[in-house]
Amino acid sequence: MKGNFVTDSIKYVGVDDKDLYLFESQYEIPDGVSYNSYVILDDKIAVMDGVDERGQDEWLDNVKKVLNDRKPDYFVIQHFEPDHSGSVEAFLKEYPDVEIVGNAKTFSLGANYADLLEHKQLVVKEGDELKLGSHTLKFIMAPMVHWPEVMVTYEESEGVLFSADGFGKFGALSIEDDDWACEARRYYFNIVGKYGAPVQTLLKKAANLNIKIIAPLHGPVLSENIEYYINLYDIWSSYKPEEKGVLVAYASIHGNTEVVAKYVAKKLQEKGEKIAFADLTRDNMSEAVEDAFKYDRMVIAASSYDGGVFLPMEYFLMDLSYKTYQNRKVAIIENGSWGPTAGRKMKSYIEGYKNVETIGDMVTIMAKAKEADYAKLDALIDAVIEAGK
Ligand SMILES: [Fe+2]
Ligand SMILES: [Fe+2]
C-alpha cells in the first residue's frame, strides 16, 4: 500500500489507534492497532466498513477527502463489532442517503448497536453481486469467523478480497513491523482461535477466487505472497502446530517453581529445542496462548494454591480450553509446600482438551527442588524431547 492507495480506485481511509492500552479490554497492544476502512471509487461509490468510535472523526475526515465532494452510494458493513461499527451512526448522520449493505444478520444484530431503521437497506446473501461500474462486489458469507454476521467481499476486477477480521493483526500501520506473522498469530489465536472450523470453510470458498490483494480490517493490506498468508491461516485454523518447539509456562508464588521452569527451559534449549517462555503471573496471557498454539509441546509448572492450582495457571489453562487447544503434548510439574494439589487440577484441564497427551510422569516438587528432583526433571526433559520426534 503506497500512501492511501490500495489500487488506483480503492483508497485506504482507516485510522491508527496508538493510545489504546488493551484491545477488547484484554490484549496488550504496545504498538497499537489499526481500524481499516476502504473507499471504492467508481460510477457508484462504496465505503467498506467503519472504524472504532475512538477514530471516528479522523475516519470521517479521511472519507471526506477521498470522496472529494461526491457522496457515497453504498456503505458495506462486513462486521458489526464495535471496533468497526462504533462509528456507524456518525457516518449515517453525515451521509443519511447512503444505502447500507449487509446480510440479514448484519441488520438484526446491528439493530442492537445502532439505529439503522430510517436508512435504505440492501440485504445480500451468499454469492450476491453488486455492480459499482467497472468494479463488482461479490459477497461471501463467513459466519463465526469471529461473529455470526461476518461476511467478506471479493472485488472481481482487481482481485481484492476484503477479508473482515480475517488476516488482521495488531499494530498501528504507522509503526514499522517486518514480522507480520508474530502479531497476526497472536491476534488470530486470541480472537478467532475458537472458530477454526468456520475459518476452514471460508478458506475453501476463497480457494476458488483469484486473490491478488487481501484488505483486512486490521493491519496491513497484503499484496505479495498471498499464498504465504493463506497457508498460515490453513495451519492455524486446522489446529496443527506451526513449528516444533516447547512453550514453558509457569506460575510461581515465591520463586521456587520459577527456578525449576528456568532450569527446564535452559536444558531444553541446550539440547536444541526451540523455546518460548512465559511467566503467567506477569507476562501478557495472549502471548502465552499464541505460543501454546504455535508449538507442538508445552511444559506447565505451577504452585499449589487453596487446594487447587495458582490462579494465573488456571486462567491460562481455562483460556486454552475456550480456544479449543488440541493436538499437542504437555508435560506437568507441580509444586506444593505441604500437600501439592496443582498437578491434579492441571491434569483435569489437559484431559479435557481434544487429542492432547501428557508427556512422561508428572514431577512433584515440595517447595525447593532437591537433587533427586533434578534427576526426575532431567527424565522429564528427555521425555519432552522424545515426544517431539
Ligand atoms: Fe471482530
Ligand atoms: Fe476487529
Give the SSE map.
Layout: E1 10-12, E2 15-17, E3 22-23, E4 27-28, E5 33-35, E6 38-40, E7 46-48, H1 56-67, E8 74-76, H2 82-85, H3 88-94, E9 99-102, H4 104-110, E10 120-123, E11 129-131, E12 136-141, E13 151-155, E14 160-162, H5 180-192, H6 196-206, E15 213-215, H7 226-237, E16 243-251, H8 256-270, E17 275-279, H9 285-294, E18 295-305, E19 308-309, H10 311-322, E20 326-335, H11 342-352, E21 354-358, E22 363-365, H12 371-387
Parallel strand pairs: 7-8, 8-9, 9-10, 14-15, 16-17, 16-18, 18-20, 20-21, 20-22
Antiparallel strand pairs: 1-6, 2-5, 3-4, 6-7, 11-12, 12-13, 13-14, 18-19
Helix pairs in contact: 5-9, 6-7, 8-12, 10-11
Task: Explain what you see.
With 389 residues, the protein is of the alpha/beta class. The chain folds into two domains: 228 residues, Metallo-beta-lactamase, Chain A, CATH 3.60.15; 145 residues, Rossmann fold (3-Layer(aba) Sandwich), CATH 3.40.50.360. It contains twelve helices and 22 strands. The strands form five sheets. Strands 16, 17, 18, 19, 20, 21 and 22 form a seven-stranded mixed β-sheet that branches. Strands 1-6-7-8-9-10 form a six-stranded mixed β-sheet. The radius of gyration is 24 Å and the shape is elongated. The mean pLDDT is 96. The chain binds fe (ii) ion (2 copies).
